[in-house]
């Protein structure tokens, strides 16, 4: 298995320009924030972010594109050379504006973005030169990645030529698509559209498993893809090889989704080039995307970061069980099992003290967690604030929580019957009330809550501070 594959990137290169500052006042001239700029940074964006991700993973990378004849093009060329990217062909067209996206950032939040760019298609002469160069160098590469930002480089005829040349030489060709016309990528190994892009391209509103299957199959059949993929944001990725599979994402706090699609494309290209099968490639891409959404700005994920992320989440995930798994684990055991349940939407010190006291009553603490749908029915459409997987992982991080099990009903009655705990714990506010499951469990304990702490109060306090 090769660890340093050669991968060629073709697409729209640009500069990601960041102005970093602080904001603590409103302008006297107009009702707008005044940002005090502390730092200015520039990095490769667009196809350049795909390149950066490939380099971080350990690939050797070549690039072909078309730029304007301007200072931004000079900066792009400089950054490519600085990062030791093999420039196979960079054509400069007079009158074309090289792309730059400028983002104003304050307190890790993007305030505004302003762009300078050309969007018209590249000239036919430029396309011909690029095709000739590709025919000359294709044998040197394991895969070709097309990063389409709809800035005019990847014309339908150019895409067709690239895919034909790649297929003739048995090279992978992966595409991050744009627009509605996915037929211009006909014959590619795979595309990486998100749900919205896939819906627009297929004309199918994707709102359930059935419509997802129809859309992903339509893409596979009409675009003649080897593998069909649709990215599902925090739900992971849908893959159709010989059947539909949903490869779930492991949730992580999201600071910025900028460039996550580039990371997916780069990681899939890298994984296939080193010999991984498509399922393992998708799993790796999911992990890489989870790493980068936790960073600010277009970011990359190294293999080391991905391994650390996988290790951390494996440790946490191993505590999250289905009711069937939990029933098997707990049966015929001689340890005292304690059960409690709740939404645990925004974890606070009141929750932590309550759970620790619960654990002290026995040997194993099982926490039943209301699913997202269950929370919405109980608390309203604006809840939960955090998704069920995020809430489950937060609970799993507590050393005194042994297992977490998500249930979809309004009450955990069926779950309690299934796992049959020794002790059932609820808050002291249940004094004098019927406790769900008390007819199943012999020992019911009520624990006092910490005064002044509740998720609702926290949400209200946040609203008041705005």
Automatic annotation (TrEMBL):
Example GO molecular function: heptose 7-phosphate kinase activity
Pathway it works in: Nucleotide-sugar biosynthesis; ADP-L-glycero-beta-D-manno-heptose biosynthesis; ADP-L-glycero-beta-D-manno-heptose from D-glycero-beta-D-manno-heptose 7-phosphate: step 3/4; Nucleotide-sugar biosynthesis; ADP-L-glycero-beta-D-manno-heptose biosynthesis; ADP-L-glycero-beta-D-manno-heptose from D-glycero-beta-D-manno-heptose 7-phosphate: step 1/4
Reactions catalysed, as given in the entry: D-glycero-beta-D-manno-heptose 7-phosphate + ATP = D-glycero-beta-D-manno-heptose 1,7-bisphosphate + ADP + H(+); D-glycero-beta-D-manno-heptose 1-phosphate + ATP + H(+) = ADP-D-glycero-beta-D-manno-heptose + diphosphate
Keyword entries, A-Z: ATP-binding, Carbohydrate metabolism, Kinase, Multifunctional enzyme, Nucleotide-binding, Nucleotidyltransferase, Transferase
Ranges where the Cytidyltransferase-like domain occurs: 339-432
Entry keyword annotation includes Kinase: yes
Source organism, top-level taxon: Bacteria
Active site: 262
Entry similarity comment: In the N-terminal section; belongs to the carbohydrate kinase PfkB family.
Domain Carbohydrate kinase PfkB: 6-301
Record-linked InterPro entries: Bifunc_HldE (IPR023030), Cyt_trans-like (IPR004821), PfkB_dom (IPR011611), RfaE_dom_I (IPR011913), RfaE_dom_II (IPR011914), Ribokinase-like (IPR029056), Rossmann-like_a/b/a_fold (IPR014729)
Region called Cytidylyltransferase, residue ranges: 339-466
Protein name: Bifunctional protein HldE
GO BP term, pick one: ADP-L-glycero-beta-D-manno-heptose biosynthetic process
EC number annotated for this UniProt entry: 2.7.1.167, 2.7.7.70
Positions that bind ATP: 194-197
Main function: Catalyzes the ADP transfer from ATP to D-glycero-beta-D-manno-heptose 1-phosphate, yielding ADP-D-glycero-beta-D-manno-heptose.
């Amino acid at each position: 298995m090769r660890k340093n594959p050669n991968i060629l990137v073709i697409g729209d290169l640009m500069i990601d320009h960041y102005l970093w500052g602080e904001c603590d006042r409103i302008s006297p001239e107009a009702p707008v924030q005044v940002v005090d700029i502390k730092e200015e940074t520039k990095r490769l964006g667009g196809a350049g972010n795909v390149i950066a991700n490939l380099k971080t993973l350990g690939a050797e990378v070549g690039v072909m594109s078309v730029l304007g004849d301007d200072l931004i093009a000079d900066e792009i060329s400089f950054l490519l050379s600085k990062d030791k990217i093999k420039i196979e062909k960079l054509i400069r067209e007079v009158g074309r504006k090289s792309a730059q996206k400028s983002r104003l950032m304050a307190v890790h939040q993007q305030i505004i973005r302003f762009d300078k760019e050309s969007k018209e298609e590249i000239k036919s002469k430029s396309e011909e030169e690029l095709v000739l160069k590709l025919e000359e160098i294709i044998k040197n590469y394991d895969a070709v990645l097309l990063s389409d930002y709809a800035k005019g480089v990847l014309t339908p005829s150019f895409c067709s030529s690239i895919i034909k040349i790649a297929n003739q030489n048995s090279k992978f060709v992966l595409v991050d698509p744009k627009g509605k016309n996915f037929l211009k990528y006909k014959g590619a190994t795979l595309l990486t559209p998100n749900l919205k892009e896939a819906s627009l391209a297929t004309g199918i509103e994707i709102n359930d498993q059935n419509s997802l299957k129809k859309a992903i199959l339509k893409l596979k059949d009409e675009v003649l893809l080897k593998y069909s993929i649709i990215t599902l944001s925090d739900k992971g990725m849908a893959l159709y090889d010989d059947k539909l599979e949903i490869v779930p994402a492991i949730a992580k706090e999201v600071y910025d989704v900028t460039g996550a699609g580039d990371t997916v494309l780069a990681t899939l290209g890298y994984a296939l080039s080193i010999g991984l099968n498509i399922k393992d490639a998708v799993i790796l891409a999911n992990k890489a995307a989870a790493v980068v959404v936790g960073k600010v700005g277009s970011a990359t994920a190294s293999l080391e970061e991905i391994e650390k992320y996988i290790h951390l989440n494996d440790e946490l995930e191993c505590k999250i069980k289905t009711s069937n798994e939990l029933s098997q684990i707990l049966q015929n055991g001689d340890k005292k099992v304690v059960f409690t349940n709740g939404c645990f939407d925004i974890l606070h010190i009141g929750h932590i003290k309550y759970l620790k006291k619960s654990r002290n009553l026995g040997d194993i603490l099982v926490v039943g967690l209301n699913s997202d749908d269950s929370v919405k029915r109980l608390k309203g459409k604006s809840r939960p604030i955090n998704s069920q997987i995020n809430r489950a992982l937060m609970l799993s991080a507590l050393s005194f929580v042994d297992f977490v099990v998500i249930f979809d009903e309004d009450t955990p009655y069926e779950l309690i019957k299934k796992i049959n705990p020794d002790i059932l714990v609820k808050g002291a506010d249940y004094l004098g009330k019927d406790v769900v499951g008390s007819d199943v469990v012999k020992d019911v304990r009520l624990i006092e809550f910490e005064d002044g702490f509740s998720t609702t109060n926290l949400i209200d306090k946040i609203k008041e501070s705005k």
